[in-house]
Design brief:
Layout (H helix, E strand, L loop, with lengths): L2 H28 L6 E4 L2 E4 L2 E3 L12 H10 L3 H9 L4 H11 L2 H11 L26 H11 L20 H10 L15 H15 L9
Length: 219
């Protein structure tokens, strides 16, 4: 066979192969069972449309502040109030309790936190003011009583009679004097447990009320 004829045969075979490469995919596309699609790389051609592969969505991680805000937004009003109340100071708690209190509770609270007024000066015969001592005792008749009854010891208690304090008040006498002097806060307090100023004030009140008789007369 001549070289020229061999070349023509080779060219013809190449052209036939090229035609087949173009015609066969087109034929398969037109005659498939309802699935007219061709995959080209990572894209898919369907009836003239191209769909790209779905990309994986990336969500920014939620910060701690955002998580707390989202959680707090989902609380009921009662739950949100309880959460805030956890961080109140003692003053804020007291203010809230007073705010929601009934009128009767508010009056009781005012009496509880308001200190009683100091007893007025007690005058004895002759217009003199009985010495209260002001916590230190002072002089005069009551100083004599303190020295005689307890040697000036405000916390002493008589084991036999139960009398107590610098002036050796019996508990019953102490309660009566406290009521008479307008000091209900001292009723029920043992004389030896009262402050020095309160013991001096009660002794002064008793002296102005009944004179020296409760201590046996003169000193």
């Amino acid at each position: 066979m001549s070289p020229t004829k061999t070349t023509k045969i080779a060219l013809g075979a190449s052209a036939a192969a090229l035609s087949a490469a173009v015609a066969i995919p087109a034929f398969a596309l037109a005659h498939s069972d309802g699935d007219a699609s061709v995959t080209q790389g990572s894209a898919r051609v369907v009836a003239g449309e191209t769909s790209l592969p779905a990309t994986t969505s990336t969500t920014t991680p939620e910060t701690e502040a955002e998580r707390v805000a989202r959680t707090f937004a989902g609380l009921s009003p009662a739950e949100a109030f309880a959460f805030r109340a956890m961080f109140w100071t003692s003053e804020e708690r007291l203010a809230f309790r007073y705010f929601v209190a009934t009128p009767e509770e508010r009056e009781a609270f005012k009496k509880f936190v308001t200190p009683p007024p100091p007893p007025p000066p007690v005058r004895v015969s002759g217009g003199r003011v009985a010495t209260s001592g002001g916590g230190g005792g002072g002089g005069g008749f009551l100083a004599c009583v303190r020295n005689r009854e307890s040697r000036g010891q405000y916390g002493v208690v008589n084991g036999s009679s139960g009398a107590g304090g610098a002036y050796q008040f019996m508990p019953g006498t102490w309660n009566n004097v406290a009521r008479h002097a307008g000091r209900p806060d001292l009723v029920g307090v043992h004389p030896s447990q009262a402050s020095r100023a309160d013991q001096d004030a009660m002794a002064s009140a008793l002296y102005g009320w009944q004179g020296a008789a409760p201590w046996g007369g003169g000193c």
